[in-house]
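Task card 7
Instruction: Convert sequence to structure tokens.
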Amino acid sequence: MASLLVAVIYLAFVSLGLPDSLLGSAWPTMQTVFEVPSSFAGYVSMTISCMTILSALMSPRLIRKVHTKWIVVVSICLTIVGLIGFSFSSQYWMLFLFAVPYGLGAGSIDAALNHYVATNYSSSVMNFLHCFYGLGAIISPNLMALALKYARWNEGYRWTAYIQIGILAVCILSLPLWKSGTAAQEEQLEEAAGIKETVKVPGVVLTLIAFFAYCAGEATAFLWTSSYFAGTKQGMSDGLIASFGSLIFGGLMLGRLISGFISNRLGDRKLIRLGIAVEFLGLLLILLPLQGYVVAAVGFLLTGTGMGPIYPAIQHMAPVNFGKRYSAAVIGLQMASAYIGSMFMPTVFGKLQQAVGIWIMPFYLALFALANILLLEIAYPKIDRAKATHS
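Output:
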């Protein structure tokens, strides 16, 4: 039964990844349909992220009061509403209306499942969990590419909603697998620290800013990779350009799959250092001044591979670094910080690339990768000293 529950949790993370890559892969086509500038994708992305931040900030209280299984079911329902709404949008302003459930469905499920797995499972399970997020994020750009080739962009959102409905059905059928926690676990949740108390813990703020930096780069890559190829390479079809939106997600899935086998041996901190090194290698390949798209595509795939272990490793470290009393609030704050990065920085890049050119994208991503690793390396000694003091 325990292994079946893990499988359901993995499937729930597939559902979390499905909506995230659609806007970036569809936007070069949607932009022309709605007759708006390319940077307007950032405003829609910002609205989705804003709703996700609100949802993530509510997650510590929700985790204390509501069982994780109900957070999962309600969150998937909200994303289905958002996806179907996007598919029926005929005007640009309508995207903002359906961005509300689209975003609200992501924050709480992300924080709740991350907290559940970080508390109950190994680093390996956490990496495999996020690998399945990458699987979902790969499926949807390719669905969108098929929709652009054989139908319209609207169908890409609709087909993704149908997959979400199937996942929702499996999650509802699996509700009996979720057992209530022990009395000790329930008491531990009731005594969990709040947000105000948690931000005072040494190292927490630095890890939040590091998470902001990581997700700023990740979200920028999610949204603008297809546009990077459209703006720097020539002679490609709309469907091929849209399919490039899956490169970062494919890399994420590959990186997390590999990490699932080695994370228990290396540990989270070494895994993050290795990931950053691979990410920089990918960015160097993207920067090579070659006319073809193959080397740049490999570069984006490597960049995503390097990014892969960073998100799950930071999340998995929360109970170890800060203790179970603070872990739910830390993970909720990390999610909020992550989505603040996701909300603003792709939009900032949209304005930057409009003014300078989209060729600057690898430099933008490198800046956030550097900030991410530096902030974490500064935080580790503070965390270790605080743990030694309280041990």
